Every structure is written in C-alpha cells, then in structure tokens.
Amino acid sequence: MVDDLRLRMLDDLLAAERNFRDLAERKVRALTGVLTELAYRLAGEKLEQMRQLDPSAPSSWKPEEWRSFFLSISLTSQGEGWGKANGSGQAAEIAALQAKIAALERELARVRERGYEVPPVERVAQVNPLLVSAGEGRLAGFTLPKIPKAWEHRWQVRAEMSKADAELHLKRRGMVLKCLAEGLSVQVEIGRYVGDATGAQYRSGAIRRVFEALEESGLIVRQTLTLQVTGSLPTRLAVARLSEEGKRFCRALGWPVVESDWERLIRLHEGEKQEGHTLAVLLFASAARLRGWTVEVLPEVNGNARPDLVITRGEQRLYVEVETGTRLHEGNAKWRMNAELNGGRVALVARNVEERGVLVADCRHAAEHGHATDVETLIAGRLVAVSEGDPLWAEEW
User: Fold this and answer.
1) Which among 300, 307, 235, 297 has a CA at the least distance from the CA of 266?
2) 118 near 16, Cβ under 8 Å?
3) Where does the Reverse transcriptase domain start and stop, copy by copy (predicted)?
C-alpha cells in the first residue's frame, strides 16, 4: 500500500512537471504568435521577404532579432496599413503599439531565460484548481438511471474500491456516456464537464480511469488524433465515441443517441484519412462550446459551399472553414463562398499563427470583414482555462 502511494505521488509529480513544461512551451508559442501577428500587420511584405531567406523565421527568432526587426520598421511612413500617419489619434495608436511590442519582447525574453523550471510541489494545486464549483455546468443535476440486469456485467468496479468511491466512479461513467450520447467527442472537454459536476480535475487519475473502464467494457471506442501544428512534436487530441454496444446500452437507459461530431466527420469528410483536419475541427468545436457557442459540424447548406462548422450564439451565426492543408484555392473561391454564407464576412481556422497570417491576407481580397484563429492559439489558451464569454477569435478585421 505504501509503495503504491509512493508510485502515485511520483506519477503526480511527473505529471506536474510535464504540465509546467507544456505551459512554458505554450506561453512561448503564444507570445511568438502575437509578435508574428504584429509583424505581419506592420510589415507583412518585408517579413515574407525575410522568410524567403530564412524559412524558420520568425518562429526561431530570439528577442534581439525581434527588437531589430521592429526597430527597422518606420511606423510613421506613408505606406499602407497601421503605419500610415493620420493625425494625433494615429500617433497615439502607434505609441501604444510600440509599448505593447516592448512589453511582449520583455515577457518573451523572461520566459525563454527562465526555461522549464518545475515549481515547488505546493504550487501544483494553484496551477490546476478545481474547475468551477461542483454541481454547476452541463451535467448539473445528473442522476444515473438504474442499470438493467442484462447490462450489469459491463458495469463492474474494482474490488478494492470503497462503496463511496465505487458509486462516484460509476456516476462518472454514466456522465461520460451521456456526453457521448449527446454527440460530444473530445475527451478533455468531456472530462471538464464531469470534473465540473463532481469536483475532479480534468486530467486526474479518477477521470482517466473512467474512460479506461468504459473502453475495457466495450462501451466506447477511443483514439488519439495527431496534427503537426508547429515544431517537431505533433499535437495530440484524445477522442472517443460510443461503440455499437455502447449505443444500445445508452438507449436501454432511456437516453437518445445522436451521431457524434467525430462520427460525422468520418462519414462525410474522410475523417479517418484526414486525421489532422479532423483534430482541428473537433478542437475548434470544443473551444467554441466552452465559450458559450452552439456548434454543428458539417452543416448542410444550399449551393457549392461545404463549411466545416456553423457556430451560433444569440443572434450571431457564423459558418467556419478549417484549413490545415494547402492555401491554394482558385480565385479564392473557398473564401468567397464562405463570405457569401456569412453575409460578407469570412470565418477561418488555420493550423498555426504563421499560416493564419497568410490565409488572412488571402481572405482580405475576398471579404472586407472576417474572423480568424488557429490551432496553435487555441492550444495555448487551454480548453480547461476558458469560460463562457471569452473571445473565440485571435483576430478580426
């Protein structure tokens, strides 16, 4: 028992170290992304010229190189964009922008110099607080129906669990199945809803064991999707769906079962072959829902447009295109059709910050207004840290 406790403590410490390392890496990427966005807005043509000489630029730049780049730009020139002088209001905007650039450079330098320092163990709880108060959220008031006798063999718990732990574990199993029956697919999103309702951290062993038990029982199917977002390490996203047995089990409990986001992508959009695109669509869908949007994957529309999602909140309604492959679309037709669906406004999700800058430049020729974000930025924002009302888009024009 003592050895088991020590192993669990060691696992927790290692998990905490990985979490803080991921946090530092994501913070660096996010700060670099903001600087890249500013660079494109201020001197996109010059940045593209520099990228032709050095394809790794600007993601590989150090603070000194960022500072040199921004100092080389004349913010009071008569060119296009933000650099065009236009009175005292424009001067104030330029001054504020320069201050923001300096602050971002200092923060980026500080993060890089500090490296991946693992904080003291007592700080772990501060970084990973319980998500919202127990009993609130999507699963508030959830009650597990009585399990039919024909299914009891799939509803077993480990013998060493206490009665209270077993009841809570089974309740969490039911919550996960309910979310899957309602069409959700992303494990971290479902884990957050279950954690909100039962007082568990979304990456805790308690939540992980629920998914493992459901998979072992044959009620769900799980897979880890990957996408090369930036750098050498791929981004991974764990997803799940009900097996055929799982669907029958949910119906036996009286729960309607709908086609999940993941299943719909597999059926209508070659979701298994286009694994990276599937990851990006599902990640964005989760990010939008957690911010208070209603999401539909692969909505049916009239005409030739085939949007990846439609999101709705109040009177706002946007058809969204997710682009993780080539940017080449003849005559910007893809973005023109998207703008037509949105009443003259483009909504896009790119693979990373740099590609978002390129796509936004393309889309500005197709639509006067638009919204854009990217997988890299969404990951940096962390699904477990967002709440309803938080901004969904990284930039708008």
Assistant:
1) 297
2) yes
3) 1-75
- What residue type is 109 in one-letter code? A
| CA 159 from centre of chain | 37
Nearest to 347 by CA among 377, 308, 380, 298: 308
**Rounded-to-integer distance, Cα 29 and Cα 212, Å:** 32
Distances (CA, A) of 133 to 192, 193, 195, 197, 292: 12, 11, 9, 8, 18
What radius of gyration, in Å, describes the C-alpha atoms of the chain? 24
pLDDT of residue 250: 97
pLDDT the model gives residue 76: 46
Cβ 386 vs Cβ 290: under 8 Å:
yes
Residues 6+ apart with CB under 8 A from 197: 134, 135, 136, 137, 138, 139, 140, 142, 175
* Residue 68's pLDDT band (cuts 50, 70, 90): confident
Helix axis angle, 87-114 relative to 63-71, nearest 10°? 160
pTM for the whole structure: 0.66
Written as six digits, the tokens of 266 are 């597999």
Task: Judge residue 52's burial from the number of C-beta atoms within 10 Å of its C-beta, 0-12 exposed, 13-18 middle, 19 or more buried.
Answer: exposed
Look up residue 160 and give its amino acid. E
Tell me if 33 sits within 8 A of 377, measured CB to CB: yes
Strand segments (E) across 292-362 = 294-297, 309-313, 316-322, 345-350
Helix (H) or strand (E) holding 109: helix 87-114
Show the tokens assigned to 173.
Answer: 């199993």
pLDDT of residue 271: 82
What's the pLDDT at 3? Answer: 60
Question: Which tokens go with 74?
Answer: 């004349």
Q: Over the stretch 114-128, which tens digit does the pLDDT of each residue have? A: 544 434 433 333 333
Distance of CA 259 to the CA centre of its chain: 21
Is 202 within 8 Å of 195 (Cβ atoms)?
yes
